Amino acid sequence: MPEKPGSHSMINSCNARVVSTPFGINGLECYDGNLSVNHPRVLNSATSRNETAVGGALGIRNLCNRNKEEMDFDKPIVLASLHHKGRLVVWDADTMDVLGTCDHSGASVIECVITPTYIYVRVENEGCLEDKEASIFIWHTKSLKLCDRVVAHDGRVTSFAVSDESDACFATAGVDQMVHLWDLAKDHMIPVQKIALKSSVTVSLYYAGKIFASYAGSPMVVWDAVSGKEVFRTKEESGRITLVRWINDPQRVKSKRRVAQDLSIIVGFNDGFIKEWSVHTAHSSSSSSSSSVSLALKWAHKVHRSQIDDICGDDEVVLSCSALDGAFLLLPSTGNAASLFSYGARIGLLDTCSKLAIVGAEDGSVAVFSYAEFYMGRSVPGKLSVFRPHVGSVTGMFLQLQRDQKWDRLMCSSADGKLLFLDYSKSRCGSWIERVKSQTVDFIPRTGGIIVPQKDGKVSIVNRDTLAFSSKQPSLKLSKSVITVRWVDAYNKLLLGYETGEIAVYECRIDNNNIVSFFKLEERGLSPYFVPLIALSEPSSHLAVACFRKETLHEGGFLVIDVEHADITFPLQYLQRSYAIRCSIIPLKDMEDCDYTVILLLRDGSILQYLGDAEERVDAVLTRTISNSQLPNVRSMELTGLSIFPSQYVLSVEQTTTDAPKITLIYAEGPHLKRATFSATAAGSVEVTDFAEKGANASQQTEEKKLGDVVCLTGIFQGDLGLAVVRDSPFVDLVSPGGEYLYRIWYGGDVLNYDMEGRRRRQLSFPFDPAILNEKKSLAMNSSCSACCVSFCAERRYLAIGYRDGTVQLFDTTQHVIFARFMAHTATVTSIWAFPHAMVSFSVDGSCYVGRVTRRVLFG
């Protein structure tokens, strides 16, 4: 079918965040400080420019308020997730921070209604000793403290409804075949009305002082809430009602000060029928208690073969879902129904502004369909996007539109205990940093600030909370631009490399307010060279090595720095016809002829080792060549758009009691990983083996050749994870320290466990455009989904992955899941840093993005 222009990009371009909990989620509820109704919503075009459209399913509300002259858009939106094991978690839907938790001591939270005053909660027993099913829990909305527990029935409460006129009035139905009406302003212990029946009853609505309910033999009965008398009963015979929803009304329905009002409800039955009744309410001039209510059947259609679990609609279409036979889109005017899902679906949303239907399925997938052509009678609904963010079934969804009716955000919950936040505005949990000079940043652990050099010569600090330059922290103002920064936390020193060729050492002082002051200690000119790279010694940081090069010619060298004493007067060490792109310096103790060794990865792919003596200040001596040049391979990879090739090596040092330390170097030669082991001194030779020769099976070795050259390596060395291997492909492999392949991270968001390879499982994914998987890298380098750089944060235990199309994903190395995804750039990510509170990425076009790293596991 014809598709809307740009529809794929709108639906698939978003930032994502996943929060995991150990408790399954039964549904979602939303509240903006004014309105809340326990029904799913249909998103319609706003009638005023000051209104936004918001909707959801299983208790998600529209947040518009036409009764207000002005809207407060700065007001936080509160999201509540209903969990097993008694948890009701309240979120700030904008910042995605947890505001509080309401604990029901092990009983599963089934239903929730939020009003400006109270949070009403219905639970079911789930292994707890105390019987709570007969009660309605009432919490204060603002303080999240328990206000009351109303024992409503002799047995389990099956349903309840809150009045649209008063937060203190609600109705309950129970297994005792009773309907009780409550008014908290009068009594918390005894209901104001009791209605006895002869069969199980379900309370659906509490509207205009009337109670809408249904029971065996009576599809719909309406009682007056004051007198308890029956005022209306439908005559149609049908199956049992499972759902009652308002149609074509995204507001909370209010009846006060209305003389007459005609609305409609759509009703789902357990036999698969859907019916629409018009609801006419007439009020007398004296009081609402004397109002009359009548219902008239407008249409009825058989859509499903079994019970309907969710339903919503407007004047044009009706979307219905069933856990047994899937989701259908119905045209009530013609009775034509189109199948959207052929298997179980529990949740549905309608975005009538863009003629889109969103369905959450039992297998954890979310699908978006366009029904514009279907409504016109010319085609069937077209599938725009399908992604599977969950393992368990989708149990709740929440969608908000921007003022121009474009998608702002989509949230969905799952029975597997995870919440997914999709930000289509890309304005939350991340920000762009302007006027950045070079692709180098660093982190101050004590303050949490990120050091960023700017184009005007300033060195500024990005605040960890606001993700913007700190207003309280004065910038270090310089007369020349900085291209390299390196923070030395052990000595509170800052090493800077200037664009004009100087290198400088600053001392830093941090006061009680975490304000950093900078004082220059030393500066040295290296012109015509400049310093693009500075590395600190491992494991201590009292030494550093700075690599310098010329702008145009392939000439360079390195300089050793005594960080502890701010000494940068060591002799320059020159390299012949090349320069270093990676470096390491390792201090050596109790050695006669040397006290440090330097490892250099040159631009042509060769790896060299130098030995030097910092005490004697003599020139370092080239000791050995660990890996030979790969210049032809380097040039061929540069033609594909990679400016960071060859890949980094991973270095580890093993201290010995008698001899010199033993150095292990893991590096790549084409598609293969190599392990080089040698002495830190000149003694002995280099032992080179295949890194994956132990524990690697034949299929893994074949996979290495098929995927191509390694473009990036980074060490992890936590738990069973050794390092991350990035090839020019959509996959990132995690390998054990012994060389065994453990996990594979896919661009789409799925993570494969090699031990479970071949077993049937659900493949997870985030929204993305599948067309990029078929792009040729040579023709569309910046549209490729291949990974190109990684960075690991040991403190927060996550891996940041950058891709050629500008996407960044964050992988939890303990839970082994993708927990965040940023559509940060429109060009290849060339460098990335993983810090405890933020991720910083740069692209080939010079843009800089800072993404917040938030808490991704609750109660764990």
TrEMBL record:
The keyword Repeat applies. The keyword Nucleus does not apply. Coiled coil: none annotated. Keywords: Repeat, WD repeat. InterPro entries: WD40/YVTN_repeat-like_dom_sf, WD40_repeat_dom_sf, WD40_rpt, WDR55/POC1. Gene3D superfamilies: YVTN repeat-like/Quinoprotein amine dehydrogenase (2.130.10.10). GO terms for cellular component: cytoplasm; nuclear lumen. SUPFAM superfamilies: WD40 repeat-like. Signal peptide: none annotated. WD repeats lie at residues 150-192. This is Uncharacterized protein. It comes from Trypanosoma brucei brucei (strain 927/4 GUTat10.1).
